[in-house]
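Try this one yourself first.
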């Protein structure tokens, strides 16, 4: 007795269409939901002057410039306070600002000392806007930023005075 071949294998499969409506509905709901709940964060930008390379991007050497009489004002942030030096204040004559009694840094005194230095060099050809900040590796980031803020401006009784707005960061001190 011969069996009749099955009809299942001989039927052509109907082409299936992908139903994208559920995916579109999901996107219609999710996109506005994500946009409405997104947190927009204002990013603070601090402008810094980082050390320049010896050569430009094109590979040609930068032309030498005339040496300008430089103040090279430096504030060293150590765990025991601030040390202010410059090209005209030697390491042995550095201004020392110790920590306050509670162990915090004295930013007001730092601003006052920088204001005195600024008044002293105001009518000289020295760079009156540049300052270099150095910090030990174990100094907290917020202390560094607060020092940067204290070195940029000083609040007098009359107004806010610009001190040294062009901040450069130096390598770790030993």
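Now uncover the answer:
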């Amino acid at each position: 007795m011969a069996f009749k071949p099955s009809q299942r294998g001989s039927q052509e499969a109907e082409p299936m269409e992908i139903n994208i409506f559920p995916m579109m509905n999901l996107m219609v709901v999710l996109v506005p939901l994500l946009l409405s709940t997104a947190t927009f964060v204002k990013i603070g930008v601090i402008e810094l002057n980082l050390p320049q390379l010896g050569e430009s991007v094109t590979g040609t050497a930068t032309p030498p410039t005339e040496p300008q009489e430089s103040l090279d004002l430096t504030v060293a942030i150590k765990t025991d306070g601030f040390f202010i030096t410059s090209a005209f204040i030697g390491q042995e004559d550095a201004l020392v600002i110790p920590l306050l009694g509670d162990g915090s840094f004295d930013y007001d005194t730092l601003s006052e000392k920088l204001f005195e230095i600024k008044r002293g060099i105001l009518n000289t050809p020295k760079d009156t806007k540049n300052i270099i900040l150095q910090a030990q590796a174990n100094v907290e980031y917020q202390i560094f930023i607060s020092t940067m803020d204290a070195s940029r401006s000083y609040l007098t009784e009359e107004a806010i005075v610009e001190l040294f707005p062009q901040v450069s960061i130096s390598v770790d001190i030993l």
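Discussion: The chain has a mean pLDDT of 79. The chain has three helices and seven strands.
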